[in-house]
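#dry-run=false #mode=assembly
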Amino acid sequence: LAVTNESTSPIEGQKPGTSGLRKKTKVFMGKNYLENFVQSTFDALKATGVPVEGGTIVIGGDGRYFNKDATQLIAKMSVANGVKTIWMGNDALLSTPAASAVIRTREGGFVPFGAFILSASHNPGGLDEDFGIKFNCENGGPAPEKVTEKIFENTTKISEYKICKGFPTIDLTTKGTYVVEGKIRVDVFDCAEDHVGLLMKVFDFEAIKKLIARKDFSMVYDSMNGVQGPYARRVFIDELGAPESVLMNAVPKEDFGGKDTPSHGHADPNLTYAVELVQKMGTNKTGEKVGSGDGVPEFGAAADGDADRNMILGKQWFVSPSDSLAIIAANAGCIPYFKEGLKGCARSMPTSGALDLVAKKKKIPCFVVPTGWKFFGNLMDSGDERYFPDSDIYTPFLCGEESFGTGSSHVREKDGMWAVLAWLQILASKNQDESKPLVSVEQITKDHWKVYGRNYYCRYDYEGVSSESASTMMKNLIEKLPTLKGTEMKGMKFESAENFEYNDPVDKSVSSNQGVQICFTDGSRIIFRLSGTGSAGATIRLYLEKYEKPSGNLDLSQFEVVKPLAELALELSDLSNLTGRNEPTVIT
Ligand code: VG1
Ligand code: CO
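#status=ok
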């Protein structure tokens, strides 16, 4: 197991974004690209005192093209960097939440110092599409900014990487423990066992099983050819006794099915891309009812490529992610993990304020963080005695984003399966009496609005805009902000206008430039930010929110209600002129 130091030189652009480093697969396959990033990560960890030498590491990914080869390469580099134990899911698979669960809960006398997760999430996979990598720390969560900044800095200076070329290629198809030359231990295990085991502690599976067994209940779950397939099989078929017909696209594919599938290879659970599921559930692309609804299942859900996102649908009914988060918060008491009460919650800034209304009523703190799951970690850890022995104020904790991401402090990632089980648990608790008609997802959503009001909400994405025009637009907008307060436009009065900055209450770190947030006196908001997950060019995200009181009109189309706000936002930002775009690429 001789270690060699290979010489290399810095490669431009290896700065991790919202969730790790994402680039075209061919870029990642280029000479030293992955090697440089992995070595820079090890160097950053060693510099901050992380016990890499003699330590245990987790490696796995979402099954996209290049996942297996990258896993084997990282194993060889891990050994060269002093790692003694390597944990890998079968077939190099680990969903993002499962990797987090493995770090936090897998038994075996070893405590991993972290994980390399190979994923570009919902970005299409394949030789001509995207690949990605990120590092998660010993708490199971994405590396915080101070670590990703250090990694990036290292990539600009790197001159050599370590590799153990003689380390064998591990047979990832066969589960078991391998000991290489009496020195290195490799465990290949079922990718689903730890995560599903944890979920069985978080939820009351027996109650959900009864719901699924009801004759008037039926459901479908679309894994979108991503990594969720084996997890979905384990949960729904093996544990909950559902029929095989529940599973859609449950075999992971390297290209998520590719361009010829209804989703065009976008394993992205929203009304635009989850075409097959949306059709099955009897709605159209804007969530409106299509057809009679006969034969439509009561419940439908989907996951993205790495299984951290979720979309929740009822019979001919779409639940917006921000509403889903608020509804789970309002009903958290029926989930065993929350039975002693939810202690705190958080949302990303662009996520609607529906959660805040529930938190206010429950008298629990509600934090607003920048986009990206890494910002929830400190809040959740503030209840972890390993880091903060004197406090357990915020655990159990719930958090979510408007981008179809929901989760809790059971792991440190958003968790697609968790969100689906949360909804099934809520449905189960409201449908215990089989002699009564089923309380539907639609009914639960409407009941929620009747209590809290409705935060009409929508997001417009302008994809593939030139980076230059996108940053000009943001720059102009930021310059305008100080002049807006108190003035009016199209009959709307500006309440506040800021370039969002987050002051982390736990570690006091400051993250600035996190998006432009403009609020109006009637409670409406518009937000502009640039995506940090793309692999080329820029994506502008425009988020629109309008609040309606419980006594107001709750039954309008969210897409229609926010249109006047969109017009105002487009005029204010001059988006069309600057980018040449008249229509968004995707509306969710
Ligand atoms: C997007 C979403 C963000 C999410 C991130 C990672 O980021 O907006 O809410 O946390 O993707 O999710 P951005 O910077 O493109 O807006 V995933 O499922 O792509 O790992
Ligand atoms: Co994802």
